[in-house]
Design brief:
Strand order of the largest sheet: 6-7-8-3-9-10
CATH topology of the largest domain: Rossmann fold
Number of helices: 18
Bound molecules: adenosine-5'-triphosphate, magnesium ion
Largest sheet: 6 strands, mixed
Number of strands: 22
Radius of gyration: 23 Å
CATH superfamily of the largest domain: P-loop containing nucleotide triphosphate hydrolases
CATH class of the largest domain: Alpha Beta
Distance between the termini: 54 Å
Structural class: alpha/beta
Number of domains: 2
CATH architecture of the largest domain: 3-Layer(aba) Sandwich
Shape: globular
């Protein structure tokens, strides 16, 4: 017989309303001690909202929360931590202007008897998860994956009984992901429970014991993970069966459209490649291999001199994003918060941001046309928002990402550069993005795609370049080469 004490967390009939949205609709879950409990669901299903209620960021409107046998009427984030519940947010929650050590022990320096002790303790924690980040580095200078490791170290610094990880892997390298797997197992062995939220279903199958599937603010099903197939899980998430996760590959490859010759920086060595009309070119490499540097240089986002750029055979100068835009290029950047979204602006403003010059006549924005664009992209990408006027900051993570994709899709770019375009996006919506990508190439455009999800690059690209240590190390036809061959070249 199970008794209540077998559960670290029980939530019953939780409801949460936002203006125009019922984010949670009588959600009930019970998380046993010492298990990894997966939660999956479409963008906007309510996963992060539930976690924010548990961690004291939001107040619940209805329902009961029992943590470690104690009914919790009200909690603040600090109280939740002190009770033993910590959370790693989907969007980082670190202070960019402070060091790694300071961030891990923010507000708790006295615990370690001052700064020296703090850095020493921080070092131990980072070592325990196999991370070599300097504890004196400013968090603002770290890569996304390094920030993630800081978040994990911070969670471990509290003696947590339940650690919530809301899409912890979205910016981790495969090495770091392996370490995360080990850390999760260690936690489970110590009797700690982990709630693991991810759109990467492979991870759910690999790490989780139990999985709860959410849709539209409700829990649709809870099952031991071995009792579900991937197809069943997807069908429950999206409410319909999806035959294939990728649309048929487009085959429209034609004449050269963009040629880049002899691109050299401190990090890149003799990068030369051609992108053809109708082509999806995948760049495969580890995080830090130089993929993002290549596309930022090509797009003129980083000042780089000395290389040649040809557009349809003619030399062009692309030394700023403005010139890139004029040449018909668009970039969906990797870090949506830093480079993509203007958080205090509405969904509409964010979507139309790159189209403003077309919408403005004598300094006046044509607001009905602006509305039309926003509504078109909301529809095309299934962006879940109460209205185009809703502030983008209140959207779920995946829906924020869709706003950026929509912004650049609207430009109907000749050359679309996408850096991790589907990060944080649910399986169903990914498919919609793939279909739109195929449409762009079908109409004579071309796409450069970076993705850390190998199946995605291999299924969508016509050609793949492997990048390792700032060099192009291989070129493959993904229909002929095996994933192992490609990864061998990418790893070096
Ligand atoms: N602060 C807020 N103000 C208004 N609406 C909100 C707020 N936070 C979340 N919502 C809405 O609540 C719903 C659930 O969002 P939530 O972030 O929980 O989704 P999610 O399941 O985590 O999705 P994703 O997979 O995209 O991260 C969405 O419709 C979202 O727009
Ligand atoms: Mg979320």
């Amino acid at each position: 017989m199970e008794n209540a004490n077998d559960y670290i967390l029980e939530v019953k009939d939780i409801c949460k309303y936002f203006p125009g949205v019922k984010a949670l609709d009588h959600v009930s879950l019970s998380v046993p001690r010492g298990v990894v409990y997966g939660i999956v669901g479409e963008n906007g299903a309510g996963k992060s909202t539930l976690m924010k209620i548990l961690s004291g960021v939001y107040e619940k409107d209805e329902g009961t929360v029992i943590f470690n046998g104690e009914t919790i009427e009200h909690t603040t984030p600090i109280q939740a931590l002190e009770r033993g519940l910590s959370i790693i947010y989907q969007e980082f929650n670190l202070v960019n202007t402070m060091t790694v050590g300071e961030n891990i022990f923010l507000g708790r320096f006295s615990l370690n008897h001052g700064m020296r002790g703090t850095h020493k303790k921080a070092r131990e924690l980072l070592d325990s998860i196999g991370s070599s980040i300097n504890t004196n580095s400013l968090v603002g200078d770290l890569s996304a994956s390094e920030m993630q490791m800081v978040e994990i170290a911070k969670a471990l610094s509290f003696d947590s009984k339940l650690i919530i990880m809301d899409e912890p892997s979205s910016s981790l390298t495969s090495e770091e992901l392996k370490k995360l797997g080990i850390i999760i197992n260690q936690l489970r062995d110590r009797g700690v429970s982990v709630i693991y939220i991810s759109h990467k279903l492979d991870e759910i199958f690999e790490y989780c014991n139990i999985v709860a599937i959410m849709r539209d603010g409700c829990v649709i099903d809870v099952k031991p993970v071995e009792e579900l197939t991937r197809g069943e899980m997807i069908a429950k998430m999206v409410g319909r069966t999806i035959e294939n996760e990728y649309p048929p590959r487009a085959h429209f490859v034609g004449e050269p459209l963009l040629e880049v010759k002899n691109l050299n920086t401190r990090k890149l060595h003799n990068i030369s490649f051609t992108l053809h009309k109708g082509e999806i070119l995948g760049l495969v490499g580890l995080v830090g291999a130089g993929r993002t540097e290549i596309i930022r240089a090509v797009y003129g986002a980083d000042k780089v001199k000395g290389h040649e750029t040809l557009l349809e055979g003619k030399p062009v100068r692309v030394s700023s994003p403005k010139q890139a835009k004029k040449a018909g290029m668009a970039l969906v950047p990797e870090d949506r918060k830093r480079e993509g979204l203007i958080l205090p602006f509405s969904v509409q403003n964010n979507i139309t941001l790159a189209s403003l010059s077309d919408l403005t006549h004598h300094g006046v924005v044509d607001s009905s046309k602006e509305r039309e664009i926003a509504e078109r992209q909301i529809e095309a990408l299934g962006i879940k928002t109460p209205s185009p006027d809703t502030k983008v900051v209140s959207l779920s993570g995946g829906n924020q990402q869709k706003c950026i994709v929509g912004r650049w899709m609207e430009r109907d770019p000749k050359i679309l550069i996408m850096d991790e375009p589907t990060r944080g996006i649910d399986v169903g919506a990914k498919y919609e993005i793939y279909v739109l990508m195929n449409k762009i190439v079908e109409e004579g455009g071309a796409i450069i795609m970076i993705s850390s999800e190998l199946p995605e690059v291999l299924n969508m690209s016509n050609r793949v370049l492997t990048i390792c240590d700032g060099r192009i190390t291989g070129e493959f036809n993904p229909e002929e080469a095996s994933a192992t061959e490609i990864m061998d070249k990418a790893i070096g």
